Amino acid sequence: MTSPNLDKLNIVPFVSVDNMMKLVLTIGVETMIKGIADQIESDFKRWELFDKTPRIASHSKEGVIELMPTSDGEVYGFKYVNGHPKNTKEGLQTVTAFGLLADVDSGYPVLLTEMTILTALRTAAMSAVAAKYLAPKDSKTMAMIGNGAQCEFQALAFKHILGIETVRLFDIDPVATDKAILNLKDSGLNVIRTTSHEECVSGADIITTCTADKQCATILTDNMVGSGQHINAIGGDCPGKTELHKDILLRSDIFVEFPPQTRVEGEIQQLDADHEVTELWQVITGEKEGRTSDQQITLFDSVGFAIEDFSALKYLYQAIKDTEFYDDLDMIADPDEPRDLFGMVQRAKANL
Questions:
Q1: The model's pTM
Q2: What percent helix, strand, coil does the chain show, rounded to 5?
Q3: Would you please indicate which residues are annotated as catalytic (active-site) residues?
């Protein structure tokens, strides 16, 4: 693995929030989402090479803090991420994150980066990758229930990768919808405000649910979902957090990232532990089928998995090469004599 910084292994490229925003604006939001989506597809085709474990979660009554690690045997990556729905009312982000890549051979980190923005991009990319295989052919309309921080990224991903032309919006907080309409005004999408869950999903080819309350709050009832629709369920999942009525699950063909994690955190926590689901990587590799008919209801029970973050980190690692959108971070103690760490500290007296 070749680092953007070739000379000193103690210097690690660090992508700050400011540099991430500059990189996104330089590359373009839609182009960057597509690049991450391509990397996700490529890595999902190598699924069996990766270490796989459910994320390591520390739950509290207010939210959750998680670590999401994985490795393909050559590169190691992890993401730190939280989910605190109450933060919005306090003027804080619901989700914040940072991540790291390391070289397995030496154990040295090669990238440290903010991942609050990068997670929004990769979540949108993952949704679009799944929809390529599961959504109705030539889908043009998407319903978006929950118009928070993820909304615009999802809309642009589905426009650029799926060809969506119309996005129907609903949120119980009209200010969130105001924000989304303003942000998407020059996107080329036909953006429609709706006044209820039912109105939002009516006639949509794809339904995206994206709410964050840490409770079982049904936002889609069985009568709202018709044959042939694709449901992209991406809400802030955790034990006890669901968005779909159980009867919708029983009528749908369900596709997941990593069953041991999804059965604990996803919509399928409502179902028996042996309820049949299909792993998305098997659809991408052609081992199993995705959408098979116009009448089929498909459900991507997305909870976010570490390999997706690994893919986003790998994409970013390449994207910053030959740019100014990172800082050199003096992160690793690197004495001239590896066994003389104490001496290195003592010699620093001269610089005090």
A1: 0.94
A2: 40, 25, 40
A3: 237
